[in-house]
Amino acid sequence: MIFTGRVPVVVAPMAGGPSTPELAAAVSGAGGVGFLAGALLSEEKLGEQISRIRGLTSEPFGVNIFVPSERRDLPLDEFRERVAEVAGRHGAEPGPADWDDDSYPAKVRLLVEARVPVVSFTFGLPEAATVDELHSVGSEVVITVTTADEARQAARVGADAVCVQGMEAGGHRGVFYDDPTEPGGGPLLGLLAAIRSVRDAVDLPIIAAGGLVHGADVAAVLTAGAVAAQLGTAFLVCDEAGTQPVQRAEMADGQRQTAITRAFSGRPARGLVNRFMTGNPDAPAAYPQVNNLTTKPMRGAAGKAGDAEAISMWAGQSYAHARPMPAAELVAVLRREAQEALRSVTDRL
Q1: Helix (H), strand (E) at residue 179
Q2: Binning pLDDT at 50, 70 and 90, where does residue 70 land?
Q3: How far apart are CA 194 and CA 144, in angstroms?
């Protein structure tokens, strides 16, 4: 397996701009595993990014895509009015509240044809036939899970590994079914509890994700049974990341709390608390319709204007400890810190 033969640091796929071929290539080139975020990109754009990363490194990398969510046709007129009010401040209007599959079948075909070393899925299960097809071209398959039951389902379709996501993680929660009655879409397990639960349920390698920003955090999940640590927030402030300047500034300030919200996309996701988030605690559980309402028209315009109160600033609970530096340097720092932490624990025991 690719993950066990490399530095146990994975850069999380961060859709919407932060993930870039340069960021993924830098992490893979430093011995870790870099990921491209294939979600929210067209098939053509994703193909271009795959070509770019292959022009930057010959090391293994991964691509993540979203499994299409269950369609929920909910009344969105009232929510549209709220979006329109905020978007209007920046000369924008709400987008169409349409359901779509994010070109999922076309992206699967692209990944098979491109023979991507690792393909990961979030928001649900690929069909077993899709997993078999990826295996036939040499790709390893990872499925994001948040509970032991989801891990069992991943094992049944033939996953090579699971990415276990704790509730501390920034960005979208990887729940298979977004339960509208639950603020987090499902059970909110801390990462260490989730790792233990999944380890007891399935015999699959675990990639651990959720609130990890320091090498000691990497050491902690490795000793808990993971084969690698996946970090997203820690890489958001790296030189190669496509993170918006306004979010970089808010992360550096470190004064905002984080919370889980559906306000920006219709699916639960953790980010820095701002006015739009607190003003829409009852946002409908309708992805991707809500996402299509807000993504480009409101968030795009607000981001260009530097309005931190109207953009999604996805980040994990430990975001204030993220350190700006080149991505390859961060991989080296994390490795050194993890080694120091493990030596310290060994001495202590």
Answers
A1: none
A2: confident
A3: 12
User: Which of helix, strand or coil describes residue 242?
Assistant: coil
* 189-to-168, 194, 299, 333 alpha-carbon distances in Å: 9, 6, 29, 28
Which residue type occupies 164? V
Tell me the per-residue pLDDT of 123-177, one tens digit each, with 9 for 90 and over: 999 999 999 999 999 999 999 999 999 999 999 999 999 999 999 999 999 999 9
Rounded Cα distance between 277 and 282, Å, is 10
Give the separation between CA 33 and CA 29, rounded to whole angstroms.
8
Distance CA 341, CA 141 (A): 30
The per-residue pLDDT for 317 is: 98
Q: Which residues pair with 172 in a beta bridge?
A: 269
- Give the dihedral sign, CA 221/34/261/319: positive
Give the pair of three-digit tokens for residue 116.
């991507």
User: Do 142 and 118 meet the contact criterion of CB atoms below 8 Å apart?
Assistant: yes
- Taking the C-alpha atoms of residue 191 and residue 317, their distance in angstroms, rounded to an integer, is 12
Q: Cα–Cα distance between 184 and 169 in angstroms, integer?
A: 12
CA 196/CA 223 separation, integer angstroms: 11
> Long-range contacts of range 105-111, CB-CB < 8 Å, 24 or more positions apart?
106/43, 107/38, 107/43, 107/46, 107/65, 108/65, 108/133, 110/43, 110/46, 110/47, 110/50, 111/38, 111/63, 111/65, 111/139
Contact 167, 209 (CB under 8 A): no
Q: Which amino acid is at 233?
A: T
Q: Give the C-alpha separation, 309 to 274, whole Å.
A: 5
Mean pLDDT, rounded, of the chain = 97
| pLDDT tens, residue by residue, 21-50 | 999 999 999 999 999 999 999 999 999 999
